[in-house]
Amino acid sequence: MTLYKSILIGLLGSFLMFLGDMILYYDSNDYDSKDTINNIIGIMKNVNIKRLYLGGLLGPICAFIYCNGFYHIVLSCRENNLTFGWIVFLINVLGMIFGGAYHIQCAYLGLLSRHENKGALDEFLKFLKFQAKIVFGIMALANIGIALLIVFGLTVFPSWQALFTPIFLIILTPLVGRLPKGLHMIIRGGWLNIIYFIYYLSLLISLS
C-alpha cells in the first residue's frame, strides 16, 4: 500500500463514519448541546429501526477502514523513526477498535428507549459513558502521538501539518457548538469524524 492510498482510505473511513452518525441521529429539528445525550436519545427513539441497525453497523465497518487509513502513520515515518511510528499506529488502531464498538452500541440507546424499562436504559447508559472514557482517553494519546511525530519532523510531512491533526482541531469544538440550527446538527453532530476528514484532506493537499 502506498502512502497516498492509505490516506485516501482514511478519508473514506472518516466520511462513512460521519454518515453513520447522521443515519443514527440526524434530525432537521437539531438538538440542544447543553443536554446532548438525552436529546440524542429522544431523536433516536423516534427514528426508523432500520436506520438504527444500519447506522450502528457502520461503526465496526468504518473502524476497519479507519485502521487501514492509520497505516499512513507508518508509511510517512522516516526510516530511523519507524518504531515510534508503529507505536502511534497501534495506539490509533486500538482506540478505533474501541470506537467502532462504542458507535454500534449507540444504536441501543434508540432501541432500548422505545421500551418501558428506564432501569435497563440507565444501566446501559452508565456502561456506554464508561466506554466513552476509554475511547476518548486512548484516542487522545493516539492523536498526541500523531502531532508529535509531525511537529518533530519524524515524518515526511511539514511541521505546520500538525495544526490540522485531530488533537489541535478538537480545540475548535466550542466554536462549532455555536453554529446555527441545522448546520449545528450536521457539523457538531458529526464533528469527531469531520475532524479526521479535515486531517486526511490536509495530508493529501500537502502531498500534492
Task: List the keywords.
208 residues; mainly alpha; elongated
Briefly summarize what is shown.
This protein has ten helices and no strands. It is elongated and about 60 Å long.
Q: If you had to describe this structure to a student in words, what would you say it looks like?
A:
There is one protein chain. With 208 residues, this protein is an all-alpha fold. The protein is built from ten helices and no strands. Helix 1 runs antiparallel to helix 3, helix 2 packs across helix 5 and helix 5 packs antiparallel against helix 6.
| First and last CA, distance | 18 Å
Proportion of residues in extended strands: under 5%
Secondary structure: helix percent? over 70%
Radius of gyration: 18 Å
Low-confidence stretches: none
Biggest sheet layout: none
Total E-strand runs: 0
Structural class by secondary-structure content: mainly alpha
Order of helices and strands: HHHHHHHHHH
How much is the average pLDDT? 93
3D shape = elongated
Give the count of helical stretches. 10
Task: Please write out the topology.
Elements lengths: L2 H23 L10 H9 L4 H21 L2 H5 L5 H31 L5 H34 L14 H4 L3 H4 L6 H5 L3 H17 L1
Helix pairs in contact: 1-3, 1-10, 2-5, 3-5, 5-6
